[in-house]
Amino acid sequence: MSITIQNLTVIIVTFKSENVIHNCIKSIDSEIKILVVDNSNNIKFKENLEKEYKNVKCLLSSENLGMGAGNNLGLKHVKTEFAFILNPDVILEDDTIKELIEKSKDLQSFGIIAPIEINQNFPNYKRDKTSNNNFELLTPFTVKSVDGYAMVLNLKKLNQIDKFYYFDENFFMYLENDDLCKRLKDNNEKIYIIPSSRIKHLGGKAVDETYKNEIELSRNWHWIWSKFYFNKKHHSYFFALINGLPTFISSVLKFLFNLMINNNQKKKIYLHRVLGFVNALAGRKSYLRPKINDQ
């Protein structure tokens, strides 16, 4: 079965995203079902969304689950054969979904398809090193992975893979999409970019700017942790250690420098990078959560 408006559900995981999600929802066809999973457990946010948009249902998580687990929670409630994973700071063009639907009809089989980021300086995909990069952005092309802020999952296809699971919930943020894509590729499933389907990703705007500093600390901790965990999972502990050591050493030196010059915010950033690496090295879970008073 091909994608249609009727058998597609959009999943948007939010956390303090009140300022950006409305532009995202308004860019989506009002006939398409949207499931918002709110990680900040904001009852008022849920009530306002469901009152304003007839096609939106909002689930409140009891804790801040992160991106992977938040999407998994949403996927448990999806009854359609396709799920469009979106970040709240993504805006679709008028024909974004139409193009996804039309071009998907020309594909014999796929596990994931994704629109393309408008800004070509920040592509939302990675290609294999052996791929021919001299191509025109006209027809769908296969990729190694796509960024998790905009991807359509072929749920029927994925559910046919033996012992396959969606997002690895050990990742709180970062690389959960790369992990999903790698596992799909290992099962010989294809991942496509549809270049005629375009989106605009605002980048780092999913959470209200009020919490910018705290979110930045969390991002630095989790990026280092996730990178180590990904490399350990798909390569080896030794590979993850060697790959992460340069960043760890650099972060230690930068922490000490900013400690001496009393640059408090940068000192915290590099300390969080150090701690992210140390905790991953020790095999601890990705436990860190943003410290937000009204959470």
* Assigned CATH class of the largest domain: Alpha Beta
Q: Main beta sheet: strand number and arrangement? A: 9 strands, mixed
Tell me the number of helical segments per DSSP (H or I, 4 or more residues long). 9
Structural class: alpha/beta
H/E topology pattern: EHEHEHEEHEEEEEHHEHHH
What does the average pLDDT come to? 93
- Radius of gyration based on Cα positions: 19 Å
CATH architecture of the largest domain: Alpha-Beta Complex
Shape summary: globular
List strands and helices in order, with pairings:
Layout: E1 8-14, H1 21-26, E2 33-38, H2 43-52, E3 56-60, H3 66-76, E4 82-86, E5 90-92, H4 96-104, E6 112-117, E7 125-126, E8 141-142, E9 145-146, E10 150-154, H5 155-158, H6 176-186, E11 191-201, H7 212-234, H8 237-260, H9 264-281
Parallel strand pairs: 1-2, 1-4, 2-3, 6-11
Antiparallel strand pairs: 4-10, 5-11, 6-10, 7-9, 8-11
Helix pairs in contact: 7-8, 7-9, 8-9
Q: Keywords, please?
A:
two-stranded antiparallel sheet, 11 strands, Spore Coat Polysaccharide Biosynthesis Protein SpsA, Chain A, 9-stranded mixed sheet, 9 helices, alpha/beta, 39% helix, 295 residues
